Amino acid sequence: MTAAVANELERFHQFVEGKLASCLSTDLSPEEVLSEWRTTHPLSDDLSESVVAVKQALADMRAGDRGRPAEQVIAEIRQRLESSARS
Questions:
Q1: At what angle do helices 30-40 and 3-21 cross, to 10 degrees?
Q2: pLDDT per position as a tens digit, 25-34
């Protein structure tokens, strides 16, 4: 095990201990804790991809792309989730 992996595991261990010590985390499943960890500690590759996507979106906005209304996007996501739940 590399030192970087060992350090990452130690930080995750401390994160989980903090969740267990918190009264607010008693209803969290292990999967939810891991999901929260991944959200707050993205991998460097994920972060790099996100930065590229945000820069592209900003460039598109400057070029006049106004995007789509949030209501439309939410309706499409809801429809996809409902149809996949029926499958």
A1: 120
A2: 567 888 989 9
